[in-house]
Design goal:
Elements (H helix, E strand, L loop, with lengths): L2 E3 L11 H6 L6 H30 L1 E3 L6 H12 L20 H9 L16 H11 L3 H4 L4 H9 L10 H13 L17 H14 L8 E2 L5 H10 L7 H12 L5 E6 L11 E6 L2 H13 L4 E14 L14 E5 L5 E14 L2 H14 L19 E4 L7 E9 L4 E7 L4 H11 L4 E9 L1 H7 L5
Parallel strand pairs: 1-2
Antiparallel strand pairs: 3-6, 4-6, 4-11, 5-8, 5-9, 6-8, 7-8, 9-12, 10-11, 10-12
Helix pairs in contact: 2-9, 3-4, 3-9, 5-8, 5-9, 7-8
Length: 460
Amino acid sequence: MSTKYPALTRSLLSASLALSIALSSAVPTYAATSTTTATSAATTAASSEAKLFLKEKFGITFTTSTITKGQFIQAVADALKLEQPEELPAFTDLTETSPYYAAAAALHKQGILTSTTVNAEQKLTAASALYIAVKAAGLQELAHTYPQAKITAGLKKLNIPASSLGTAAAQELAAAVDTGLLPASQYNAIKGKGLTPQLAETLIVQILSFKGEYKHYIGNINDSTIYAQLHDAFKTSNIIQALELQTIVDTALKNNLVTGYNLKDARFDANFTPSLSLNYGHSDLLHVIQLIGLLRSEGIDAKVQLEPKTSAYIFMKEWGEPPTKDTENYKVVQIENGNYITYAKEFDIAFEFNNAADKARFQPIILQYAKKDKADQPGLIYGSWFQPLYYSSTKLDEYEVITNNKITGSGYYYAQSFSLNDQSKNIVEGFRKLDPAVNINSYTFWVDKPFHNYLNGEGL
């Protein structure tokens, strides 16, 4: 359900004039213009990214000319997924009939709101929003260690005299500057101004970042360190062991309810903006190293996250003997009928592209350079599969719709088994027979045709 938050008309922030003044007179004018343009473009891109993320993840959008305190605290509570506490504060100006009561109570419980007077209908200033953000980000204790020298230095960047504020307020603004909770691009939005949509969105995303609830990624395709980061992420992941879930899904494998499943750890989920992201599954790190290089050579940049997973499937006894020696990346367990359950260390590479056009370009690149159609096929990157697996939670042309049957346990781990849509009902019912209390979330998503063909038993 989408939540709307009224807002001021958006305007782009220009780069600080101090930048050009500080430049040496020997530097040509065009250098300052170039820097200013780049700064403005980066600010606009970051703002657009925050706006889209909040809209798609939480239904948070600011749509009218004024942001009230109630609307901002509602947005903060929604983003942090805070619920109304059992013990309710006695607000002096807010009753339980108010649409903002639950959010205000939740923030009060967390110490983000410290007064019993809310002023929910009052237009919110940028500075007041920042006080809320400091507490919501967990920076209050740090702020209140600030001596006068650090306060003065921090507020100087905002062009706000320390003498105009109380001690606690001055400390919190200064700490917001020093910690980066308030990005430099937003310094001019604070002094004596109302809360703009751009600043509101920026602060909420910054709060999520400080709480570890924003996007998770090891780098970008164009980063010079991305290959090393991929190696480190892969080497430090292991075969996932989740006994609670495996008892259910291994039994489902034995009973031929599913042909395979994945185990994943939610702590590594990328949490990217859905419309710009997709996941690519594989088991070979060299393949992904070459894939990153391939995308880079095609002029595509994207955020990159390695999400560890363990794939489990049946190894049939008629295929011969499986490897007898388990490794850190592979192991087999023989089951009652003589077959084996194979557990293999794999991963999903989550990409968040800069735009929808680059996301759409991904499939033609894969089909040309990373999709095998015959053995020993030349002109492909290393380790290409006959049925590559890549998928999106939002619609893409020339993709097929299938179902994810996802089981979550009591901790961070979850199991998922992909199926054709008309098979999902039987799978879900089968899981429930194995464990009536199991938590199942079944939903559709978009997958490449070769993998859909594989699920449909069509081979290539």
